[in-house]
């Protein structure tokens, strides 16, 4: 006989609280979630199939559109795999510029997630302040790459656009103005007793659970798992090995810890950006020492804002990849909802789900 005290609450795939389609089926007992069922796949776009039917340069354009937030991380990871296969050495200046845009992308992504969390909790003023700061970052990225999104910045062997001395000075000035505002936001969020009370102790993912679910990025680091590809496995296509920064770790694994990790990671990103602008080497931004991509296999990793991104590329000597496999961080992290939503209040489901920063277009590709 069915348990008469339990009720199945369906959320999605079309729901006012969802920006992208996913279906959550929550079995509840009163207001408490007792089981979780996930259904994804509503926005599958056959990205990997498209990549196997386009040449390498067309592929860069396609992977930029895997995720609107991470449209620098995906092409960087893709071209790094091709550079590995071809044995291409990326010029040092291009590596620094890739890293600069990568850290700006991290800041704007973390600001967006923080803004969404503030909006869910009813802090409209903090939401607007976060979004205003994010707009400044987007303006910066437009000045560097020429685009606000889908930046078209990366190419095989380097980057497409250099920075003049005047542009570097303009970026420095904007960073000087932006950094204090972001630091003020961090203080405002972390010292607000209502935000702390609303996020502390809910949606807990323990260290052991984080390891078992193989979560990555800020979700892992908020549970004390010291996993950060920028430190652990820096790729030769970027400049992280030349920069000084720290992994940001928390141990409680709750929503507050995930908020803290993202906020404090922005501090480390500013440190790296200032180092890059100070030590940006002279030289070319694109190598011309290759004519084709040979037959081979390349595996590339990149610490995207949401966590470790992996591209597995197989080439057959033609100008079209034989196979490209994409492992997006959101695809790994989403299944942790099966754990962190259990025994939580239904009213906290949106806040807890948002704390893992899911991107459904990324995970479904």
Can you give me a brief rundown of this structure?
The protein has 365 residues and is an alpha+beta fold. It is built from 15 helices and eight strands.
Low-pLDDT runs: none
Class from secondary-structure proportions: alpha+beta
- Helix content estimate: 40-55%
Shape: globular
Which CATH architecture is right?
A: Orthogonal Bundle
Sequence of strands across the biggest β-sheet: 1-2-3
Query: Please, what is the average pLDDT?
Result: 88
Roughly how many Å apart are the termini? 40 Å
State the major sheet: 3 strands, antiparallel
Strand content: 5-15%
* CATH level 1 name: Mainly Alpha
Q: In total, how many domains does the architecture comprise?
A: 1
CATH superfamily assignment?
Cytochrome-c3 Hydrogenase, chain B
| CATH fold-level name | Cytochrome-c3 Hydrogenase, chain B
Query: How are helices and strands ordered from N to C?
Result: EEEHHHHHEEHHHHHHEEEHHHH
Topology, number of strands: 8
Q: Count the helices. How many?
A: 15
Q: From the alpha carbons, calculate the radius of gyration and give it in angstroms.
A: 21 Å
């Amino acid at each position: 006989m069915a348990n008469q005290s339990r009720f199945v609450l369906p959320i999605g795939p079309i729901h006012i609280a969802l920006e992208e389609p996913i279906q959550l089926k929550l079995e509840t007992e009163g207001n408490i979630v007792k089981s979780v069922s996930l259904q994804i796949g509503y926005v599958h776009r056959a990205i990997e199939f498209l990549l196997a039917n386009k040449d390498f340069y067309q592929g860069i354009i396609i992977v930029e559109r895997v995720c609107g937030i991470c449209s620098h991380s995906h092409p960087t990871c893709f071209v790094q795999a091709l550079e590995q296969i071809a044995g291409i050495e990326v010029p040092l200046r291009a590596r620094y510029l890739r890293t600069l845009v990568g850290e700006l992308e991290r800041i704007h992504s973390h600001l967006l997630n923080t803004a969404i969390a503030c909006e869910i909790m009813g802090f409209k003023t903090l939401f607007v302040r976060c979004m205003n700061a994010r707009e400044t970052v987007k303006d910066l990225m437009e000045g560097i790459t020429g685009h606000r999104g889908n930046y078209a910045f990366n190419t095989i062997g380097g980057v497409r656009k250099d920075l003049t001395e005047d542009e570097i000075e303009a970026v420095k000035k904007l960073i000087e103005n932006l950094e204090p505002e972001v630091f003020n936001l961090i203080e405002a969020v972390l010292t607000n007793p209502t935000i702390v009370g609303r996020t502390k102790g809910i949606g807990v993912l323990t260290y052991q659970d984080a390891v078992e679910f193989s979560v990555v990025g800020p979700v892992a680091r908020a549970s004390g798992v010291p996993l950060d590809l920028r430190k652990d496995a820096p790729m030769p296509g970027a400049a992280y090995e030349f920069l000084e920064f720290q992994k940001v770790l928390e141990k409680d694994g709750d929503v507050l810890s995930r908020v803290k990790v993202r906020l404090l990671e922005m501090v480390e990103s500013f440190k790296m950006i200032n180092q890059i602008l100070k030590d940006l080497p002279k030289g070319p931004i694109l190598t011309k020492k290759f004519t084709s991509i040979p037959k081979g296999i390349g595996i590339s990793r990149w610490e995207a804002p949401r966590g470790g991104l992996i591209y597995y590329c197989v080439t057959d000597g033609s100008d079209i990849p034989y196979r490209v496999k994409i492992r997006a961080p959101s695809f790994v992290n989403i299944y942790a909802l099966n754990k962190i939503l259990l025994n939580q209040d239904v009213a906290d489901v949106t806040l807890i789900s948002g704390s893992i920063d899911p991107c459904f277009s990324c995970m479904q590709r």
